[in-house]
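quick one, 340 residues, struct below
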Amino acid sequence: MKSQALRDIATKIFADSKGLLAMDESTPTCNKRFSSVGIPQTEEARRAYRGLIVTTQGLGECIGGAILYDETIRQHKKDGTPFVKVLTEAGIVPGIKVDRGAKDLAGHPGEKVTEGLDGLRDRLAEYFQMGTRFAKWRAVIAIGDGLPSWGSIEANAHALARYAALCQEAGLVPVVEPEVLVDGEHTLEQCYDVTDEVLRTVFSELFAQRVMLDGMILKPNMVLPGLSCPNQKAVEEVADATVKCLLRAVPAAVPAIAFLSGGQTPELASARLNEMNVRFKSQLPWALAFSFARAIQQPALELWKGRDENVLAAQQALYHRARCNQAARRGEYSQEMEKG
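---
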């Protein structure tokens, strides 16, 4: 039965306190990150870097699923082994980013809507045949003067729900990512209010589109003050606000909540996730996990610099960050782990 298969996939991804590794950066985003550390912006460099990630020894001990980009899912190791096969043999479930990116929302200056629903049914069928078992769609919600508008929230929530329904029809677990952006001067309280409204709207739309909540994964932002807000909050305050918001807005049927890192430093993202699990894990109906990109990858990227002689050191850094986040899921992360 398809519904049971979806539940089994979600369970497998987050078993043994594992999480998701987001390695689904678009080509422009990947090139931008390469440029910042002096790596050539070429397809071969991108293939080499993604090969470095998927061949990291022991990665499957901490990572249960990896989100790929369309270019990546079609790439191979130098010996011809597809990356999808490498991940599967490591016990990591392959997934795929399927949205076409956030575009300007007509009539709503400063706001975006994510596109990609046209032709999605056929693309999902192809990705399923290629070995993926889950997919991801990201919506972005900005906080600012008069933002977000109801129109922006509703348009993005509706698109997320239609995407999720199509995923489940195709046998793929949908990762639903409504991201309230951290850019700006907004307070933690403003982020809380917007995140609450966004999540409530998303789940209303998911219900309307008959999405099976126990066969999906939620990938939200943590409740944080804006990066330019002068009143930054302690780890404990972020944990309190985030868990309170999720308990009010996320149905218990959802099996797992895997946070995006959203520009947090690797250490801070781990510390905040850890604090939530230390204080609230026994009280929660869903697992609190991670679906980090930069917060796992960035130290490795900075060490690699596009050079073969740096591959092992970069892989060790990647594994270290994955292990730190697995510990955070268990409520066992500490600054002592960073000294190693």
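The mean pLDDT is 97.
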